[in-house]
Amino acid sequence: MDDITALILDDHAAFRRGFARLDDARDETELLAVWEALALHLDIHAEAEEAILYPHLVRHGDDGEDETTDAIGDHNEIRDAIAESKLHPVGSDEWWAAVWKARRENSEHLAEEEDGALPDFRRHTSVELRAELGARWLTFYGEHKNGRNLTFDDKDPQKYVQEHR
Ligand SMILES: [Fe+2]
Ligand SMILES: [Fe+2]
User: Fold this and answer.
1) DSSP 73-120
2) Residue 1 banded pLDDT, cuts 50, 70, 90
3) Would you call 72 exposed, middle or buried from its count of C-beta atoms within 10 A (0-12, 13-18, 19+)?
4) Angle 28-48/93-112 helices, nearest 10 degrees?
5) How many angstroms is it from 31 CA to the middle of ligand 1?
6) Orientation of helix 93-112 relative to helix 64-85, angle to 10°
7) Ligand nearest the Cα atom of residue 12
8) What separation in Å is there between the alpha carbon of 46 and the centre of ligand 2?
9) 113 Cα to the center of ligand 1, angstroms
10) 32-81 per-position pLDDT tens digit
11) DSSP state, 52?
12) How far out from the chain centre does Cα 48 lie?
């Protein structure tokens, strides 16, 4: 069974490729096709981490509470930028501004997770637990295919930490 951190890194690589594909999209139809799939994946990924990764990290990480507070705040910024993009015609200046905000917030966030939260998580989890959470990760994606039953609402970072520690 896959380690949850490997599944998360797979998603992160897919996000980088998705933003690169936007650079190559040549008309609104292509932009919309790439962005809709990427935005949905970004939103589901954040929900999956909030359901499966961070509840564990917040309790067991060396710096779990701070890392979790930061991550939820970053997820909110990315969610807000995605929601903003949907208010504007694809390819318009306002649309690009929102998409670039999502891209910059996401790039910064991936680096923080890969250099902070995930190393901390790996140091405090067994191989068995990582596989068990990997299985839950895959199930989460199956249950919420195309975002089914997810609302992608922002979460209060402090409240989230209090509820999960
Ligand atoms: Fe992530
Ligand atoms: Fe994240």
Assistant:
1) HHHHHHHHHHHHHTTS-TTSHHHHHHHHHHHHHHHHHHHHIIIIIHHH
2) confident
3) buried
4) 30
5) 23
6) 160
7) 1
8) 5
9) 6
10) 999 999 999 999 999 999 999 999 999 999 999 999 999 999 999 999 99
11) I
12) 8
The residue written with tokens 């961070």 in the block is 54
Residues with Cβ within 8 Å of 27's Cβ and at least 6 positions away in sequence, in order, are 91
Q: Which ligand is nearest to the CA of 13?
A: 1
The pair of structure tokens assigned to 136 is 């839950």
CA of 63 to the centre of ligand 2 (A): 16
Q: How many helices (H) and strands (E) does the chain have?
A: 8, 0
Q: How many alpha carbons fall within 13 Å on the CB side of residue 119?
A: 7
Give the ligand with the smallest distance to the CA of 105. Answer: 2
Cα 8 to ligand 2 centre (Å) = 9
23 CA distance to ligand 2 middle (Å): 23
| Residue range 5-20: mean pLDDT, rounded | 98
C-alpha 45 – ligand 1 centre gap (Å): 6
- Residue 46 CA to ligand 1 centre (angstroms): 6
| Residue 95: predicted pLDDT | 98
The Cα–Cα gap between 93 and 88 comes to: 9
Mean pLDDT, the chain, integer = 97
